[in-house]
Design goal:
By secondary structure, this protein is of the alpha/beta class. The chain has one domain: Alpha-Beta Complex (2-enoyl-CoA Hydratase, Chain A, domain 1), CATH 3.90.226.10. It has eleven helices and nine strands. The strands form two sheets. It has a six-stranded mixed beta sheet, sandwiched between helices. Helix 1 links the parallel strand 2 and strand 3. Pathway: Lipid metabolism; fatty acid beta-oxidation. Its EC number is 5.3.3.8. It is an enzyme of class 5 (isomerase).
């Protein structure tokens, strides 16, 4: 459901999924977390992570088919809530990951798929196709607390958050750059991944200590870390 490739100091995590929409089912979440754990076990100073996916979608959110298979409204709700809880540790993994992280968003990133992208330090996406979209207001579903906290932490503009969360606006690449959600937009999947690899390679040259980097990141988002159950700690790897 996902692959992990090591290129020098860079780790390339590619979501393949069981379906072309890369729905974040419990099994896919397990696969991504396993790949992150493997990468983390091999991190050295200068490591960086690039996450991407194959095909038209980066991720189209939670697995609705898994929820609908319950056969009842109450069962659907229970299974959706289960997925909400199951996805939370993956967000925590990325927020605490001991290296720079880049989401190379190859296509649509919707709902939990957008939350997955935002859990990275940087986002690069396509300008020729693909949108960022929070579908909850259109579907009639509220947001988990860690989703809204993530959006407050990662998107500084209140008006942009309003457009995405309250208006359900579908944001394309060039517009996402102007809104400050993504770093850059490129006109093909290949160029998006190449851009992510170039950015990761620039970070690698700095030979940062991963533990220090991860702790500085956590200190930037105290409210988010509180909701995720992450604790900040001192880390010293001085070169002085």
């Amino acid at each position: 459901m996902c692959t992990l490739e090591k290129r020098g100091d860079l780790f390339i995590l590619t979501i393949t999924g069981d379906d072309e929409q890369h729905r974040l089912s419990p099994s896919l979440v397990d696969s991504i977390r396993s790949a992150l754990a493997e990468a983390q076990s091999k991190i050295t100073p200068g490591s960086a992570l690039i996450t991407t996916a194959t095909g038209k979608f980066f991720s189209n959110g939670f697995d609705l088919a898994f929820a609908q298979a319950s056969g009842s409204k109450s069962g659907f709700i229970d299974r959706m809530l289960y997925q909400v809880d199951y996805f939370k540790p993956l967000v925590a993994d990325l927020i605490s990951f001991p290296a720079p992280t880049i989401a190379a968003v190859n296509g649509h990133a919707a709902a939990a798929g957008l939350a997955l992208a935002l859990s990275h330090d940087y986002i690069i996406m396509r300008s020729d196709r693909g949108v960022l979209y929070m579908s909850e207001v259109d579907l009639g579903m509220t947001l988990p607390d860690y989703f809204t906290t993530l959006f407050r932490a990662k998107i500084g503009s209140a008006s942009v958050r309003r457009e995405i969360l309250l208006a359900g606006r579908k944001v394309k690449g060039a517009e996402a750059v102007k809104m400050g959600i993504v770093e850059a937009a490129h006109d093909s999947e290949e160029k998006v991944v190449e851009s992510g690899v170039r950015m990761g390679a620039e970070f690698s040259k700095r030979k940062w200590n991963g533990e220090v980097f991860g702790e500085i990141r956590k200190s930037l988002y105290p409210e988010l870390c509180g909701v995720l159950g992450l604790v900040c700690k001192m880390a010293v790897a001085s070169k002085l």
